[in-house]
Amino acid sequence: MDSISESWKQGPDRWFFTPEGALIRPDDGTLVIADLHLGYEATRARAGDFLPDRSLKEIQHRLLGLFQKIKVQNLVLAGDVTESQAAFTGRITILDQFLNWVGDQNVETLIVAGNHDRPSSPSHTFQDQVVMDAWLIHHGHKKYNFRELACKGEIIGHWHPVIKWQGRTFRAFLSSPERIVLPAFSGDAAGLDLLSSNIFQKSSIPYECWACSDSSVINFGKIQDIRSLPGG
Amino acid sequence: MTCSGWNAIDPSHQWPAHQGLSHWCNRNFPSGPTPVQSHAWPQISTGQNALLIAPTGTGKTLAAFLPILDDLLAQANHGLLKDQICSLYISPLKSLSNDILKSLCRPLQEIAQSSGAKASPVRVGIRTGDTNPYLRQKLRKSPPHILITTPESLSILLSQPCWAAHFRHLKSIIVDEIHSLAPVKRGSDLALSLERLSALTDIDPQRIGLSATCKPADLIGKFLVGPNRACHVVQPDLQSTPGQSLLAVESLIKADESPYRPLVNQRLTKRLQKSLELYKTSIVFTNTRPMTERVAFLLKQESTGLVDPESIAAHHGSLDQTLRQNVEANLKSGDLRMVVSSTSLELGVDYQSADYVIQLGLSGSVARCLQRLGRAGHGPGRIRKGLILATGPAELAGAVVTANAALNGEIESIRVIQKPLDVLCQNLIAMACLDDQNSDKVFEIVCKSYPYKDLDRSEFDSCLSYLSGELASPAGAWEPQPGEPPRWTAPRIWKAKGEFGIRNSRVARWFRMNVGTIISEESISVESQGTRIGSLETSYADQLQPGDRFVLDGKALEYRRTEGSTIHAKSVSGEALFPRWTSDRPGLSELLAIQLAQFRDQLANLILNGTSLATDWLTKTYAMRPADANCLVTLWKAQLSVSEVPESNGVLVEVFPEQHGTAYAVHFGLHHSASQAMARAVSSRIGKLVGRDLQLTVSDLGFVIHTSAQPISMEDVESLFQTNGLDADVLEGLDRGELIASRFKHTASTGFMVLRNTERGRVRVGGQDWVSRRLYPVVAESCPTHPLVLEARRETMEQFLDLPALKTWLKTAPKIRVRFLKRISPFAAAWIEPFGGDMAEPIQFESADDALMHLHQRLFSVPERVI
């Protein structure tokens, strides 16, 4: 854990932010990621594009890096696991390939449905929300009252927060004591730029922003304050 | 300022042999044929290839058609005219195609009526992107004798077996405005289409090119006919004939004034109102669509007491086709007082009513300036009058040099693009859509076109391998089933035993939906009260909220909602914002940049010898108004007071501190693309010295590099311009920036890797830049010799970077001057970064970790907080 803690940053209630864009609770081996958009290239290909589809391998590679650092018991996929119906077609679907691979790593998977997920096969169990360690995990495109469900807070995806700066895009987490917004785990998602978009700045929730690079997570303070900083 | 250049009538030549046509000509042109018609007749009537070069309004279109009409009418008289396409007219503009249709139908109808017939035996048809499905079918069933089309529609027709049969007896092809096609990929595509067409016909059709401004004529002739055919250039000497052009230059800003927007808008409106009072119909060219909307909107708002606001119109590519056609019709009939256009009216239809042209800002080249000026004063003996309006002293200097070169007739030479592989890929699909093809024969056809005369067989084969999905796949690419070899999704063609063909009918459908080389950003339609107004780019439209107001067609609209692919808006009065559209703004041509650098140098020397000398020189040599001359002198003096004026054969480096680091402004006397090459090399060298990310702004005559590091030493500055390792450093500067990746977005589209128009709507999660941000690195890494990657590099190196010009210039051992300043100099602010450095291109030298850390340090200016 000592070597890991150098690159991970602790958020509320012993949830840790990783440079890969995953949320980890090391105490019980829970890993939460959102917005994988599996089958993104396949979806483009169905519309006529002529591409190499390699995002599945890329996602597996990043997850494997995390699995090697810590013993993960449960992997929660917090919505938009797939890009479209294209991820559910074929004899062995892209989603099957991914889930089988996670199973091979001896990790249990819980899948939350997002606005992109339209499972056609009953073999894939998508839930509207799950509760882990008294935190409500849902995708974020629908509203839930986590207090009514006796939870301490909620974890969502959906927004793909990033910081864009001089041609670079850094994944970002947003956190408050009762809410964590995850970045997209997919490298294909364009992202909502926290430096130019007002959506979170206008929020009444006092979000803190955590930006990720290849091997570090850095706290950028309150999102409402970023633009008024000396160098902003 | 004046220059000669109008045609005289040559009565010596007789009209065509066909009696009806001859009578019609005599009735309409009693003075006889024009010089270009007289000179062209012997070549065209004997079936020879010809390039006709003559100013607008000198009758060259009729010169091309007269022998063709004469032949068709004679065939009809002898009962030999069959239902087959005999002649093809290709124009780059749909508006011009529509105009030619009318121009041909009128004489044919009149000739028929004079002989007592109801309709002419010679039929003319038009097939463009605007032709509706019913008319398309009708044309297919009953082809006209003369078919009018555009390069894109021709490519589609050539991909369809039924049309291929119609072209079998084709005898002649006319390509209008050929100078606008030759230097761009649209021309490469047309050159291939012409060879595809020749391969389908019984005899090699005659080719006729038409152009108003064209240099070098021999090269454009070769572009028209290919490397192995002969082409006669018909260019009557019109210099000795009476006629003149008047081209004035004015500044909207006075000396010591800052060109801030409200002041510029106010002065511009007043100046345009003055033109409204003096001229019947003016055309204003603004270079960009946002500026077109701004000018049209302001003028409509401010001129209500002066003219009917409806007599002022906007015209650009994002306005609805019907609106544009109405503007064109009203312009032609003389019902409009002023039309504001981006670039869309600079070619094509003759607007006899237009008597004044205003160029707002710089046209970039002499050829374009003359082309625009030629939109006014059409007709023998009329004077072409124009004005270049500058919005600041740097633009004013550019305008003076442009006007001077234009009036001296110093037209730039055109360069023809060599073997663009993305266009070849698109044409290979088109040919496969027609039928299964033999690779050897197709290679032979392709090499007959001028742009592909030097194509290697290996390059050709690589395009086929890409289209058939046989090029190396990226590691981890799509596996049809786990463990199978990775593949590319959706290959376009099959390839086996020396032949190739399309995979399925969807590919043919996608080809028809995405044909062409004109790249536009994804857009969304705008409707108001059920009427389509035009379109906005999706990246702009996505940010609109209900109640937001924007200007389109020179009118304020309020955003209501988006339904599917349509924005519903309501017409409102009052203020509104101007939409944003992406465009490549042209830099100055090499000729103009060199002349501008010499002008700067010369003016500085005069000022050093006394201000009055400089002012006299400007007012007498360039006919400048004293206030405008003073505007230039003031800028030069400001520059001289803090730095120096760059010598035209030297380099001036200005180093100055910024809030977050250091900036280097580099001035030298070369055009944008040579400046781009130098900027890449210098960026690479500074980046390696300081190890920090840079931001680069490239302009004509120089560039600015921003860095968060401390200044480098004087010795290091001087070493930035060495010729050793120049090529490698230019490439590194390119690879660390965004230029090639952004060009790949275009080559991937033209080469059919990523479709512009899809049947299922766009996949949006990846965002607008997915192709350059994600796809380019994957393809470039896994397959560095992929034809579309090579094409993105070629396009960047040959069209956006002029490395040969830079190398030639560096061989002159230019003197390097270095100045350390307290802030940005007046010249750097006016010429290189007039809008600040916000749009600078990032050049990356840091790791992602370092870049994030530096961003954090910059924002907080303190170490990271410990939680």
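The radius of gyration of chain A is 17 Å.
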